[in-house]
Amino acid sequence: MSATEVEQNLGTTVETCKTCGGTGQIRQIQSTLFGQMQTSRTCTSCGGTGKIIKENCEKCKGKGKVKKQTKISVNIPAGIDDSQTVVLRNEGAPGTNGGPKGDLYIVVHIKHHPLYVRKDINVLCDIPVTITQASLGSELEIPMVDGSKEKYKIPEGTQTGTKFRIKQKGFTSINGRYKGDFIFTVIVQTPKKLTKEQRDLLEKLATTMNEQPPVRKKGIFG
């Protein structure tokens, strides 16, 4: 929705300004030491328009335009990025004295999404997985930006922070020639609460893997 100016003609008939004769300019001839010089200035009676309205319209106060709210349908092209502009020809304010309408410039701002991040025409996303999924490998259902889901199998031993790429599932370029990729980063989630059975199983797993704390390397201070 935008505020636009609409032409009105609700006052009395327009008459030619008698002060300037319709030219919009007042010319004066002055005598100087170098002879006569002609100067011109904007007519104060008509404001330079050359026309006079004796009784102004109550709505537009003689300006010939009033502002009102209108709704305009806008086609946003695929692949448009933040701060880019869509131009609607002849949808701006009307010109002066019956001149053609101007253009309407719409600056696009893309809302922040809680799940996806855009980088050029690629889509970035974090996908949480469990320890068992990362350790054993798993087939994930990845939600796409268009609402669909893509199946992707991550290998066993996947580490947190590992990135995977699904080609041509990102944004379409503004010219429609290219399509970006969907890049997701695996985030391995560590459970905060364990049942006794789960704890016993993890302890047995730790025993079989002969786990021990990592050895700290000595620094320059020992």
List the helices and strands and how they pair.
Elements: E1 2-7, E2 15-16, E3 25-32, E4 35-42, E5 51-52, E6 65-70, E7 85-88, E8 104-107, E9 116-119, E10 122-129, H1 131-136, E11 138-143, E12 149-154, E13 163-166, E14 182-188, H2 196-208
Parallel strand pairs: 10-14
Antiparallel strand pairs: 1-6, 2-5, 3-4, 7-8, 9-10, 11-12, 13-14
Tell me the strand order in the biggest sheet. 9-10-14-13
Strand content: 25-35%
Please indicate the count of domains. 3
Number of helical elements: 2
What helical percentage do the residues reach? under 10%
* Counted beta strands: 14
Topology-level CATH name of the largest domain? HSP40/DNAj peptide-binding domain
Query: If you compute it from the alpha carbons, what radius of gyration comes out, rounded to the nearest whole angstrom?
Result: 36 Å
Order of helices and strands: EEEEEEEEEEHEEEEH
- How far apart, in Å, are the first and last alpha carbons? 69 Å
The oligomerization state is: single chain
CATH evolutionary superfamily of the largest domain: Urease metallochaperone UreE, N-terminal domain
The geometry reads as rod-shaped
* Gross CATH architecture of the largest domain: Sandwich
Low-confidence stretches: 5-11
Largest sheet: 4 strands, mixed
- Tell me, rounded to a whole number, the average pLDDT: 83
Query: Structural class, from helix and strand content?
Result: mainly beta
